[in-house]
Specification:
Length: 422
């Protein structure tokens, strides 16, 4: 990679901070999300474990004297370290020996089995989860509204997004994988399809060494895609698959689900459990989300024109797109993203919760007609929170596919996804 052609990523700052404080940094995430490019941009020397010219000799060296692979200028990048899992313990030992920060960067596109390392790496490794590019990173959001500013109380916003519905539909189907950015529509959409085909036919079996039937994997992914951004249960997914006259056992479901999570393709959104004024049962089921909405559109074999014909499904995909971006922005602010739903049916599509206790609630609505209902739901949620045990929300936001960013008279913010950044 030519460092001069590198597209800056939001997690660059997080990587530099981690290198300044810890001996080694592990960057994890789905294939193609840009881990290697980001690591190379920060590294002084590199070791590519999948280099076809040297892979065998690297494996032999890892089996006999792994410390030799760690020699080089620092920070030293070890790309796809899990190809020789002994390197984890070798790096940990070397970090202890050198007792200096910023020694190694490890990247990995799969979580190895629990028993392949002798030590967790606690106190030696910082971990960074890297996701596909947000719309701000790909240049499609103008970044005129900052999540960090909203948490700081800067709510007087008057901005305009120039991102059209058609452009949003294309961004969904193309995805946030850096290799697709700047390519023609035909090429970039085909690349997203090829990514999913690789998951189905290769990656999902390689992660645990258990061969999986590609046809069943495809049906499994399609069922997940049909239920994207919902709290559909395992039984719902299984019944959906059975409607095709193919059955999948509970054991197979668990194996597929686990494998997809280990290769960072599937990233469910956990439920939020706040302190409420009155006893209300909170739903705890996670929401189904992929690492990128293009995984859903690719496995469903739909293009931008196709999803514009089904506005209901488009709405679920739009929520998935927003979830990807908000997760990227929240991580930069040392936060996590959850969803909320209680037994009364009151819900918030996303809760951004920072580790310092600040939080904000977000409802995602594609069009302007639903803003009033969304604002009402957000105010209802705010009224339910026990502010003696929790802070008041830093903001209430309706995230839209529209043009205008502004603050309503009731204090609820309306923000187009084409304006948002970290």
């Amino acid at each position: 990679m030519n460092k001069q052609s590198y597209i800056e990523r939001i997690c660059d700052a997080e990587l530099q901070h981690a290198l300044a404080t810890m001996g080694a940094v592990l960057i994890e995430g789905a294939k193609w999300c840009g881990k290697t490019s980001t690591a190379i941009n920060a590294a002084a020397s590199t070791l590519f474990m999948q280099d076809p010219d040297n892979a065998r000799s690297y494996q032999d060296m890892a089996d006999t004297k792994p410390s030799l692979l760690l020699k080089g200028e620092i920070p030293r990048l070890i790309d796809e370290w899990q190809m020789a899992s002994v390197l984890w313990d070798a790096v940990r030992f070397e970090v202890d020996k050198r007792n200096q920060p910023g020694q190694f960067i490890l990247t990995g596109s799969a979580v190895p089995a629990d028993n392949v390392t002798a030590h967790t790496g606690t106190g030696r490794f910082a971990r960074i989860l890297m996701r596909p590019m947000s719309l701000y990173e790909s240049g499609e959001s103008n970044g005129s509204v900052s999540l960090s500013d909203l948490f700081s109380g800067k709510h007087d916003i008057e901005e305009i997004s120039h991102l059209s519905i058609e452009q949003i539909a294309f961004a969904m189907c193309r995805g946030g994988f850096p290799a697709t950015i700047g390519k023609s529509e035909k090429v970039s959409l085909q690349m997203s399809i090829d990514y999913v085909e690789a998951v189905i036919n290769h990656d999902i079996s390689q992660v645990d060494g258990v061969e999986k039937n590609p046809n069943r994997v495809r049906l499994f992914l399609r069922s997940l895609a049909r239920n994207i951004a919902t709290t559909a249960t395992a039984q719902t997914i299984l019944k959906d698959i059975e409607s095709t006259e193919i059955t999948i056992s509970d054991k197979t479901f668990a194996a597929y689900n686990n494998a997809l999570r280990r290769i960072f393709v599937l990233e469910p959104m956990s439920a939020w459990s706040p302190s409420l004024r009155s006893k209300t049962a909170i739903r705890t089921s996670p929401k189904l989300h992929f690492a990128d909405p293009s995984i859903a559109t690719s496995v469903m074999r739909v293009n931008p024109a196709g999803i514009l014909q089904d506005f209901e499904y488009f709405g679920f995909l739009f929520e998935a797109l927003c979830a990807r971006d908000v997760r990227v922005y929240a991580q930069h602010n040392d936060g996590d993203v959850f969803h909320y739903r209680d037994k009364s049916g009151l819900e918030a599509d996303m809760i951004v919760a920072l580790r310092d206790g600040r939080w904000g609630a977000i409802e995602v609505k594609l069009g302007n007609k639903q803003i009033e209902e969304a604002a009402h739901n957000l105010r209802e949620l705010k009224n339910k929170i026990n502010t003696e045990k929790m802070r008041e929300p830093s903001f209430l936001m309706v995230l839209t596919g529209g043009q205008y960013a502004y603050m309503r008279k009731d204090g609820v913010l309306v923000v187009p996804i084409g304006c948002l950044k970290q």
